[in-house]
Amino acid sequence: MRILITNDDGIMSEGIATLAREISKIAEVHVVAPDVERSATGHAITIRNPLWAKEVKFGNEFFGYAVNGTPADCVKLGVQAILKDKKVDLVLSGINKGANLGTDLMYSGTVSGALEGALMEVPSIAISSCSNSNPNFSSAAKVVIELIEKLDLNEFPKFSALNVNVPAVTYDELKGYKLTRQSKRRFQDFFEARKDPFGNTYYWMLGEIIEDDPGEDADYYAVRSNYVSVTPITIFYNDLKFMEKLKNLFLFNDN
After folding, report:
1. What angle is formed at CA 251 by the lines to CA 247 and CA 255, rounded to 5 degrees?
2. Is the CB of residue 3 less than 8 Å from the CB of residue 90?
3. Model confidence, pTM
4. Separation CA 132–CA 39 (nearest Å)
5. Which of 104, 117, 130, 169 qualifies as a cystine partner to 122, CB 3.0-4.6 A?
6. Is 202 domain-assigned?
7. Is it true that the peptide bond before 16 is cis, omega within 30 degrees of 0?
8. pLDDT-based confidence at 246, cuts 50/70/90?
9. For residues 34 and 40, what is the distance between their CA atoms, to the nearest angstrom?
10. Residue 190 is assigned to a structural domain of this protein
11. 237 lies in a domain?
């Protein structure tokens, strides 16, 4: 099995090093990741500037390619250029430091790395350890290996991926897996105005988490209960319920 690994925390992050090391025990691993942290870049791609892919070594050992672009750039470049003559069987994006739950998916470079793989019809998984201050990458890596061993990659629907969030606890403390939906967990943002030394105003974005989406099938509820949250996601944004409501407007016809 040939696996392409990327992330949004940067190629020098502990999360991607842990994931690559553990996955290399069961598969052929290729790392193509941003040269620096690219968190919250969403699904941005680079179209006006060239992309460089520079070899990165740890000691004398080749680790992967550092790219001056986004996670989506890295997956595109990895599949369509660096590995263009080799079939990529799976894209893994992570292990992210911090959760990707609810509306985080809109902004997450980690999730977008997986969705870019899905867009190219490659089975893809985004993986996050749900703590910014004290992530447990070892537990998350073991979860990924379990999923790879259990999943039939041929059963992945086209254009779909999995968003996996692992509580930041030891592997033995995990209660199991929950199949979850993307919740409405979100941030209520506000901006704090400050002054620089020259008297110019700048703004710092702050926010509070809102978790008012009840239901044991919500992604954040599973993580809070020490279950691994596994959420199937797709690149398409269709709102079918809204579409049904709009059908009765005089503006539309079925011709």
Report:
1. 75
2. yes
3. 0.94
4. 12
5. 117
6. no
7. no
8. confident
9. 13
10. no
11. yes
Tokens of 125: 């998984």
Q: Which residue range forms the structural domain that includes residue 151?
A: 2-184+213-246
The rounded distance, in Å, linking the Cα atoms of 55 and 103 is 34
Give me the mean pLDDT over the 166-173 stretch.
98
- Quote the percentage of the chain above a pLDDT of 90: 92
Q: Is residue 51 part of a domain?
A: yes
pLDDT in the model for residue 249: 77
Which CATH number do you get for residue 237? Answer: 3.40.1210.10
pLDDT at position 244, please? 84
How many other C-beta atoms are found inside a 10 Å radius of the C-beta of residue 244? 9
Q: Which residue has the tokens 């009840």?
A: 214
Question: In one letter, which amino acid is 227?
Answer: Y
Residues 6+ apart with CB under 8 A from 65: 11, 31, 32, 33, 53, 54, 55, 56, 77, 78, 82
Tokens 């943002």: give the residue.
Answer: 189
Helix axes 137-150, 14-23, angle to 10 degrees: 40
* pLDDT at 92 exceeding the cut of 50: yes
**The token pair that represents 204 in the structure block:** 């710092």
Pairing verdict, β 61-67 and 177-179 = unpaired
| Burial group, residue 171, by CB count within 10 angstroms (0-12, 13-18, 19+) | middle
pLDDT at 255 over 60: no
Tally of structural domains, the chain: 1
Residue 96 and residue 8 in contact, taking contact as beta carbons nearer than 8 Å: yes
